[in-house]
Specification:
Elements (H helix, E strand, L loop, with lengths): L9 E6 L11 E3 L3 E2 L2 E8 L15 E15 L6 H8 E5 L6 E7 L7 E8 L5 E19 L5 E8 L1 E3 L22 E5 L2 E2 L2 E9 L24 E9 L4 H8 L3 E9 L3 E13 L2 E2 L7 E8 L5 H4 E7 L5
Antiparallel strand pairs: 1-2, 1-8, 3-5, 4-5, 5-10, 6-7, 7-20, 8-9, 9-10, 9-11, 9-14, 12-13, 12-16, 14-15, 15-19, 16-17, 17-19, 17-20, 18-19
Length: 317
Amino acid sequence: MAVPSGISAQLGFAAETTYGTAVTVNRFRPLVDESIETTIENLDSAGIIAGAMIRRSSQWAQGLRRHEGDVGLEVTTRTLGLLMEHALGSSTSASTQQPWTWTFTPGDLTGKGLTFQVGRPDRGGTVRPFTYAGTKIQSWEVGLSAGEIATLGLSVVAQSMTTATALATAAYASTSDSPFTFVNGSFSLAGSSLCIRSARIGGENNLTTDRVCVGHDYIEEPVQTDLRTFSGELEIEFPDLYHWERFVNGTEGSMSLALASGTQYSFTITSNVRTLAASPTVSGRDMVVQNFSFDAVGTNSDASAITCTYVTADTVL
């Protein structure tokens, strides 16, 4: 028996060899929260039964099943690589010794799938396994605020779900798995280091989830049907007119959000961005705040639009 509360919850995942075919999860992340829900469409008959004022049991059937929702994690020094590969699409590593450097760039997500397993404790102390096959990351967001730990939010969609698969034994990275915090974070835009209060950077993969075939009660593999977007926001104390003028003139620039843990490990997102809004505003007697919003633009390739570099003790994704 486990403690009958969220304290006994767990999240595991693994890369599938064949999209939609579940595998045993073998990566585990400390879970902050999750809201993956299953919905089932009801198909109601339009037929009239003379005199009947309420639908009969024979007049409806179950239809399409959907499994989608959000997963909240922290950005730490271990076990994030596989998730970032499935968030962006492509991964490379040129390392030959510790620490390992992984680079993630936009790539084709077709055929890529994860098996997710969420362990949810019931009130009797049994952790019930909900196993999702064919899980894709529809969108993701990294967030950082002064006084807090960096976060990673994922919006996922899965092809199928079962509670019949046994709960995997959670095994977490035993060493060097520490959260990245605001203390060792930095942000730069167009060559200037900025004192930010908060920042968020994320991506939308624009995967269609409406591919349905006759004979199936599940969605076909979600595929990209529009351009991906990478965007973000940051809040700073108004420094000068430099970034305002860049916004007015439509000047693109390099952006970098860098997180570090000690001298070895780091998590960095770099992007070429255009500024969408940058107006400073006055709110009472407090410091004048300038809120930026931006999105990524590739100068000559998808990788030039956004790249994530993860320096970690993980030698495999």
